[in-house]
Amino acid sequence: MEMNIFENKENANNGPRSITILGSTGSIGCSTLDLIKFTPKRFEVVALTGNENVNLLIKQAIAFKPKLAVIGNEKLFNELKEGLSGTKIMVAAGKAALVEAAEMGSEIVVAGIVGIAGLLPTIAAVKRGAIIALANKECLVCSGTLFLNEVSRSGATLLPIDSEHNAIFQVFDFNNSSSVDRLTLTASGGPFIRSSREELLKVTPSQAVKHPNWDMGAKISVDSATMMNKGLELIEAYYLFPVEENQIDILIHPQSVIHSMVSYNDGSVLAQMGTPDMRIPISYALAWPNRFRTPAERLDLSEIGELNFQKPNPKRFPALALARDALKMGGAMPTVLNAANEVAVDCFLNEKIGFLDIMRVIEEVLDETSNSTLHQLSEISSCDYTIRKRAQEIAFELT
Length: 399
Ligand code: NDP
Ligand code: MG
Prior knowledge:
This protein has 399 residues and is α/β, with parallel strands linked by helices. Helices cover 46% and strands 15% of the residues. Strand 6, helix 6 and strand 7 (157-160) form a beta-alpha-beta unit. Helix 4 packs parallel to helix 5, helix 6 (137-154) packs parallel to helix 11 (228-240) and helix 15 runs antiparallel to helix 16. The termini are far apart. Bound molecules: NADPH dihydro-nicotinamide-adenine-dinucleotide phosphate (NDP) and magnesium ion. Magnesium ion binds next to helix 7.
């Protein structure tokens, strides 16, 4: 589907831009607030949301003075209310309140909630035509076509924060997209690229969340270790850019210096590089179509010395083929893949299943599910619910 999802709607007045951060207490949220702190006159924070980390949400709200602070977990409402008493900040809790935070008038919404939990709030921001700085890849994976239809209906602007997609966005010639031959998503290969199968059997959650290059939330760190993150990113790239599935390659590049590349039909390859610091792609989305200075460490290639590349081994990383197949099958399969992965990663993080069991759960769920078409958000949510229950049963059988 070809559409102008990156239409320029930079505000005409040069005053501060209003911004809402969904998932402000997470890694993406904290990096975003760090940039705002670094360049305070540029932004005015409208709403912040968290889920469990109420103390951090309170601290952030006191520091950045949003109009509204929302905690997803309703049980923490009183704590939030007490923590912000004496301020003018409105407080709310629960899933509906997360959607209200997204609906509140702000120019930019950073979609930084992890997993399909971010879908309804992000769609709410899309529906009111906001500029969406998208980190939450799972919501695009689960609802791709529907999400993009809402973007074109509302006139929202969709800007990718995910570093690979942000890199491609920076070097993709949208006025000449027929000259694009291929996209190459780079992948670090995660912490276990050289581990044996025996070692993988014994991997603990704390080992899996220690990414060699990036400092990220627990779920995406495990996804990076299994390479399901790159599988989800393949689907994300398919929806974001006007290319076919078979034009998207994945290349292991352990240094995470080249964040992705676009190959053109004249033989040119354009890449975006930088240190592995999410504040760089986040700042690009927040400033687009301009740039602003960030405190990120500068890239010193002479210090790095060499850059390495290798093709991913499909046997070692079955997640890549599972994701590609789900994308090719289309329909409900990306939603199914995502739900099974979310449950399996959660079970692994809670030490209910082993590291290699994550793929076993996903494979089994995909094998036994017959495809269907999901037309509406409610169908996506109910598919997600059913698959989660089934994935939990399968994971339980493995324990
Ligand atoms: P984190 O786990 O660090 O943060 C997740 C955020 O979502 C937190 O604010 C968390 O609240 C909130 N949250 C979790 N569950 C729910 C829920 N059920 N309802 C409402 N809010 C919820 O994740 P990251 O910041 O690492 O990742 C966020 C998204 O960005 C993911 O989709 C990830 O794939 C993507 N991304 C992240 C990158 C990174 O470098 N971190 C890079 C590229 C993409 P709380 O902590 O208060 O419980
Ligand atoms: Mg990424």
